[in-house]
Design brief:
The chain is α/β, with parallel strands linked by helices and about 400 residues long. It has 17 helices and eleven strands. Helix 5 packs parallel to helix 7, helix 15 crosses helix 17 and helix 16 packs across helix 17. The protein binds nicotinamide-adenine-dinucleotide and magnesium ion. The site of magnesium ion (MG) has 4 residues, from helix 8.
């Protein structure tokens, strides 16, 4: 039986809902007991209030200050404290708890992930953008507070489970698997008129809109390459990507003696969430299980870097170092959201990232960064550069 005092940042999103679903199932089965400290969300105040009532959270926070009155009235009589805004979010994230799920999307999750990292306990990190922006500073902060960072991204959860942290020198190479997204096998010219609806229709994973667009451009695998470099202290040239459309092998670790270890499972985020929730225990829940004979075969192919240049741009940013990953992330976020708003063509997402990285390099932005405030300053400046590129390309 595991006992956890839990905070879920971004509880109303895809990963947040999966986290609470897994908690509900394991608590009902008597495998775990949870006490919920804080739940946070964005504009979906009704769902946030329902979750906070169900879990008797101490506090529920919406990111939008203008929705506070609505949240208060939805929580009336429940005993759950209501709060709103960025400061309240960071305050809730820094409250005492054993386990914090960071599942806000984008750099918007950075301040709260940073606050949770400084508090100790487990930081279950789904919000890859905060690690890409802050890099080692975030990892060092978790360590300094006596906490533990456990990745939730399925690829990094896979590597985390098979990585020999005691003898990391035996590891030769990390291999991240990629589903290839909805446009795998298409040529560049086929992607000119892609709509947001087509881009978010992921063949294997059901996820939030922004990460779905990232999966379609392969920017997601770029962010994950950077994430893996920081988490497992590996240089870019020892992290490879292989496309694996079935999304069964979640990633692999190759050792210098030729032995490669992989982690497998059906594509369901509740399994990596369960790993993070119970580590080093294993949490029993009615997980979908693998039936390899029914699957018959698993396939692999090299990524098409010409059609999907965002992956190469992320690798270049990782090699450039400094604040380049932060700039990559900011530009990609601005471009992906502009595409979702129908202001930018699909093929121009990577163009915005490339031009922003160039402008940031010549503008001397890459030497800045560092801790949370430094990363947010770079993020803000990179967004400003990216918006001017979006405006020009969408005119
Ligand atoms: P989502 O869009 O479904 O949910 C995002 C959550 O963040 C929601 O609760 C939303 O209210 C909140 N949010 C959005 N903007 C905010 C802001 N400005 N301030 C505060 N809160 C805000 O996203 P998701 O798919 O759950 O992804 C969350 C994170 O997990 C992302 O970083 C993503 O890359 C990562 N991730 C997701 C999956 C997946 O299967 N969905 C898999 C691996 C990693
Ligand atoms: Mg992933």
């Amino acid at each position: 039986m595991i006992r956890r005092k839990v905070t879920v940042l971004g509880s109303t999103g895809s990963v947040g809902v999966s986290t609470l679903d897994l908690m509900a199932q394991t608590q009902a089965a008597g495998a775990a007991v949870y006490e919920v400290e804080a739940l946070t969300g964005g504009a979906n105040v009704a769902l946030l209030a329902e979750q906070a009532r169900r879990w008797k959270a101490k506090v529920a926070v919406t990111a939008h200050e203008d929705r506070l009155a609505e949240l208060r009235s939805a929580l009336a009589g429940s005993g759950v404290e209501a709060a709103a805004g960025e400061g309240a979010l960071a305050e809730a994230a820094g409250r005492s708890s054993d386990w914090t799920m960071a599942a806000i999307v984008g750099a918007a999750g950075l301040r709260s992930a940073w606050a949770a990292a400084g508090r100790g306990g487990v930081l279950a990190l789904a919000n890859k953008e905060s690690l890409v922006c802050c890099g080692r500073a975030l990892i060092d902060r978790v360590r300094a507070a006596g906490g533990r960072l456990i990745p939730v991204d399925s690829e990094h959860s896979a590597i985390f489970q098979v990585f020999d942290a005691v003898r990391p020198e035996g590891v030769e190479r990390l291999v991240l698997t990629a589903s290839g997204g909805p446009f795998r096998g298409r040529r560049r010219e086929d992607l000119a008129g892609i709509t947001p609806e087509q881009a978010v229709a992921h063949p294997k994973w059901s996820m939030g809109a922004k990460i779905s667009v990232d999966s379609a451009t392969l920017a997601n695998k770029g962010l994950e390459t950077i994430e893996a470099a920081y988490l497992f202290d590996m240089p870019a040239d020892r992290i490879d990507v292989v496309v694996h459309p079935e999304s069964i092998v979640h990633s692999l670790v190759e050792h210098r003696d030729g032995s490669t270890l992989a982690q497998l499972g059906p594509p369901d985020m509740r399994t990596p969430i369960a790993v993070a929730l119970a580590w080093p225990e294993r949490l029993p829940w009615p997980a979908p299980k693998l039936d390899l004979a029914a699957l018959g075969r698993l396939t692999f192919e090299a990524p098409d870097l010409e059609t999907f240049p965002a992956l190469g741009l992320a690798r270049d940013a990782l090699k450039a170092g400094g604040a380049a990953p932060t700039v990559f992330n900011a530009a990609n976020e601005v471009a992906a959201l502009a595409f979702l708003d129908r202001r930018l063509a699909f093929l121009n997402i990577a163009a915005v990232v490339a031009e922003t990285l160039e402008a940031a390099t010549t503008g001397g932005l890459l030497t800045a960064g560092g801790d949370c405030d430094g990363a947010l300053a770079v993020d803000g400046e990179a967004r400003r550069l990216a918006r001017t590129v979006v405006d020009r390309l969408s005119a």
